[in-house]
From TrEMBL:
Keywords: Thiamine pyrophosphate. This is Transketolase. PANTHER family: TRANSKETOLASE N-TERMINAL SECTION-RELATED (PTHR47514). Residues 40-287 form the Transketolase N-terminal domain. Its cofactor is thiamine diphosphate. It holds the Pfam family Transketolase_N. InterPro entries: THDP-binding (IPR029061), Transketolase_N (IPR005474). The keyword Protein biosynthesis does not apply. It comes from the Bacteria. Gene3D superfamilies: 3.40.50.970.
């Protein structure tokens, strides 16, 4: 498939939309390349945290969520909360590609007067549903959005992408308990389980496993998948029950931090960094060549 898919028809979720895995892989590569380009403009960037989420971004926005870029505040749109707000550098290009704003605006990423900062601002960037960045808040916001949708009688779904490092925040688990108590079936938590945070390996900094048991213990329905495999990602997304009263859904997506660039995969020093001119050219060429088998895999 070569043509860019249009936004889902108003009133319908993108479930079953005819978007090939090859196209989604191309969009994930686009996310990674734009992350590298924008990081060069800024002088530094969160490469590896964004690379681990690239396939998830592509699947959600191009093949699943009910959105309308021509009307960013459409009341019945699905919501997306990027709780790991430092990965916004990979989300902005997706929003531009879908038509939320002119992609040329990204050429001034993080520059004085630009609406695009390291973390997303819902008051400045069309398509951003929550200003995130302070870790641990996103799931609570998602709970509030899902409750609001119920009160207003709307059928939208709320997707919250969490970093595994922020699961050490107690507020996450307060929100998990609340979501199950209020039977927020419209709420979907997606954990980018790349096994690393800025301080080191998550299981050494603050163990979060067994994640399935922890979410299930709060009353969530839990799915564990390979977060780089579009077959698995779309299977679980398309299989979610319609938004309504019921058990909230947790998707634990096992990923590789820095996926797509060999020298960044599983490397702590690329949580934030800046590429030399030589490395920039090499990384872009590597991304153009497509994904190769991951060189690193975290242990649960």
């Amino acid at each position: 498939m070569t043509d860019r898919p249009t936004a889902p028809e108003t009133g319908k979720r993108a479930r079953g939309r005819n978007v090939s895995h090859d196209y989604l892989a191309d969009r994930a590569r686009f996310v990674r390349k734009e992350t590298v380009r924008l990081s060069r403009i800024a002088g530094a960037g969160h490469y590896s945290s964004t690379f681990s989420a690239a396939e998830l971004f592509a699947a959600l926005y191009y093949a699943h969520m009910r959105i309308n870029p021509a009307e960013p505040k459409w009341p019945d749109r699905d919501r997306f909360v990027l709780s790991k707000g430092h990965a916004a550098i990979g989300l902005y290009p997706v929003l531009a590609d879908l038509g939320y704003f002119d992609s040329a605006l990204l050429d001034n990423y993080t520059r004085l007067g630009s609406p695009f900062g390291d973390h997303p601002d819902m008051k400045k960037v069309p398509g951003i549903d929550f200003s995130s960045g302070s870790l641990g808040h996103g799931l609570s916001v998602g709970v509030g959005m899902a409750l609001a949708g119920r009160v207003q009688g709307r059928g939208y779904r709320v997707h919250v992408m969490l970093g595994d490092g922020e699961l050490a925040e107690g507020q996450i688990w307060e929100a998990a308990m609340s979501a199950a108590h209020f039977r927020l079936g419209a709420l979907v938590a997606i954990v980018d389980r790349n096994g690393l945070c800025i301080d080191g390996h998550t299981e050494e900094v603050m163990s979060v496993e067994p994640l399935e048991d922890r979410f299930a213990g709060f009353g969530w329905e839990v799915h564990r998948i390979d977060g780089h495999d579009f077959g698995q990602i779309l299977s679980v997304l398309d299989g979610l029950p319609e938004a309504g009263e019921g058990r909230p859904q947790a998707i634990v997506a096992d990923t590789v931090k820095g996926r797509g660039v060999a020298m960044m995969e599983g490397a702590l020093n690329w949580h934030v960094g800046n590429l030399s001119d030589e490395d920039y050219d090499a990384v872009m060429a590597e991304l153009d060549a497509g994904l190769k088998p991951a060189r690193w895999e975290h242990s649960r």
